[in-house]
Amino acid sequence: MGCRMLSACLVSLIVLGCAKNHTTIPLANTTREVSFSGSMVHYISVANSKPAKPAIVFVHGWACDHTSWDDQMRGLANSGFPLIALDLPGHGKSEMPRRQNFSMDRFADAVAAVMDDAGMKSAILVGHSNGTAVIRQFYRRYPKRTLALVVVDGPLRSQFPDPKAAEPFLNMLRADDVLEQVDKMMSPALQSMHDPNKRDRIHATMMATDRRTMLGALEAALDPAIWPSPPDAIDTPLLVILAQSPFWDADYEKFVRSIARNLNYQVWPGVSHFLMMDDSERFNHALLEFAQSLSNSQ
Of the chain's two ends, which shows fewer C-beta atoms within 10 Å, N or C? Predict the structure, then answer.
């Protein structure tokens, strides 16, 4: 596989990290920190005004933080669904994990710790980009706490079946000029975002991410243990929303349908990898409709 294709695959993997009739309100949330495995994990939440509705937990992507979901935390704040957006260990305002131990198990357990602190027994898990691997691992470890999964432009199979193919990019993250290299690699993907202010905010967040987190989170995403062969099934309801891209071809859709029994699969043209920011109204409406269908079936 050529260098250009490798670069495209990596971008797909790591950057791959106002609902209608709902009034957008200022972002007025409860901010908390929970102690998890010797370090603090930061999250924000919106309280549930209708206890019968399930919680929704938002998980950001590679080198991002909870602010990736600001449009959802605002736009869905008065929907009646309790909401949480967290910073994974080492990201945003969350502390670096002890011994810089990054893994998808640790990320999934951090989500569980946040839910425990918020008093949420179960939730709909929404993961963007690299957050897809986090919520998939959460489902493996906590199936009874997973009401449904929502995948936002992230992969459900490895973009690097041969882990050795990713070594050039891992080495890039170990280099002294890592920020310059990441900036060059991510710029094409960020340039396709619709709102320049949001684009600049995501770029600033990525550039502020600790290089140890960049490397550790990517190594966790490439761990062969989270990509079993044959792939394990997803029996919980699954909503997949993807930005139209050559990566999400007919073969990929066939793969997803082969592992998911209760699937809503959507591909949106005209949006970037950060589609929940590019078209927040459409995204919030789709998520709310999906969550409401689950609430009605309970």
Answer: C
